[in-house]
């Protein structure tokens, strides 16, 4: 059994800790500008803790093994934090960034119960979650300065992303079944990219502000994508010039888009059987398009305002479509 402890403070510019074996611990604390901390652990039940206060800080964490823990906190501008975990069992990654031009990345791969937390508050922040659970797991990625309490649930993977500020980007990629992603963005020019591949997945997104749109495929410009069966997607946008797109492929999927504002554009695409697409737009100059391919699909479009355009296209058998305009 090895135990490694590294502590650096007050105007230290670099800290590197490497641990290999069973039950390793690496800790780093830095205050100042242009700080850099790198920690690499290989083994079982590893713990890594990094705290930095200043500008242009960089933290890189890499863990391998079972029941690994990684904690990182930065306060300042131009910060970069990356965490990569590979193993089986319980992996936990926690990131907190306060300031402008921050970038936080978490990658978790393995089987079991995985947990990832990201918190960012400021402008031009970027957060990315990539999680692949082979035997059930959990990813929790709130992108906010305040993170809610984490409790075990019935979901395999979970992702919560909260953003408050301008020009923020939140991206999440989940592989597996019964995933949950809940995202809230409050500000201007925010982007959301989400992709879920599996069954019984849920996506809930709320955007408030101007020029917000929901996107996916890790470019945040194509919409919410779900592939599988019995998936659920809810998108709420309140603001001006919002763009919302949702793509679902499979059986028994549900897509809900509620938009309140001006110059909104909505589009939902579903391919499969027994899918439901519901589009609600309240405001002026809104446009809604729903395209469904398969059998036993249903589409509902409700528009209230002036200058709205609604289009519903269905290909297949025994489909139903309802459109209401006031």
From TrEMBL:
Keyword Signal assigned: yes
GO biological process: cell adhesion
The keyword Signal belongs to this UniProt entry's keyword annotation: yes
Protein name: Curlin
Family listed: Belongs to the CsgA/CsgB family.
Domain of life, source organism: Bacteria
Taxonomic classification: Bacteria, Pseudomonadati, Bacteroidota, Cytophagia, Cytophagales
Keywords from the named record: Signal
Cellular component terms per the entry's GO annotation: pilus
Signal sequence region: 1-19
């Amino acid at each position: 059994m090895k135990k490694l402890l590294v502590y650096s403070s007050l105007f230290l510019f670099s800290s590197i800790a490497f641990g290999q074996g069973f039950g390793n611990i690496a800790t780093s604390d830095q205050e100042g500008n242009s700080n850099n901390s790198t920690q690499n652990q290989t083994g079982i039940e590893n713990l890594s803790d990094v705290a930095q206060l200043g500008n242009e800080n960089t933290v890189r964490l890499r863990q391998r093994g079972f029941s690994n823990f990684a904690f990182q906190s930065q306060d300042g501008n131009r910060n970069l934090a990356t965490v990569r975990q590979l193993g089986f069992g319980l992996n936990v990654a926690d990131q907190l960034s306060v300031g402008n031009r921050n970038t936080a990345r978490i990658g978790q791969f393995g089987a079991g119960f995985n947990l990832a937390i990201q918190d960012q508050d400021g402008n031009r922040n970027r957060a990315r979650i990539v999680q692949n659970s082979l035997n059930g797991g959990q990813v929790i990625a709130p992108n906010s300065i305040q993170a809610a309490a984490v409790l075990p649930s019935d979901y395999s993977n979970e992702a919560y992303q909260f953003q408050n500020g301008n020009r923020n980007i939140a991206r999440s990629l989940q592989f597996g079944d019964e995933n949950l992603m809940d995202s809230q963005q409050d500000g201007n020019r925010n982007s959301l990219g989400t992709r879920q591949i599996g069954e019984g997945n849920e996506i809930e997104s709320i955007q408030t502000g101007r020029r917000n749109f929901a996107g996916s495929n890790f470019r945040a410009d194509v919409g919410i994508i779900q592939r599988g069966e019995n998936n659920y997607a809810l998108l709420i946008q309140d603001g001006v010039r919002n763009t919302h797109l949702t793509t679902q492929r499979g059986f028994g999927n549900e897509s809900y888009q509620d938009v309140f504002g001006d110059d909104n554009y909505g589009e939902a695409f579903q391919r499969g059987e027994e899918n439901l697409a519901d589009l609600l737009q309240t405001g002026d100059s809104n446009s809604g398009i729903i395209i469904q391919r398969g059998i036993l699909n249903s589409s509902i479009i409700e528009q209230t305002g002036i200058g709205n355009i609604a289009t519903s296209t269905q290909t297949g058998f025994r489909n139903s479509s309802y459109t209401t305009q006031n």
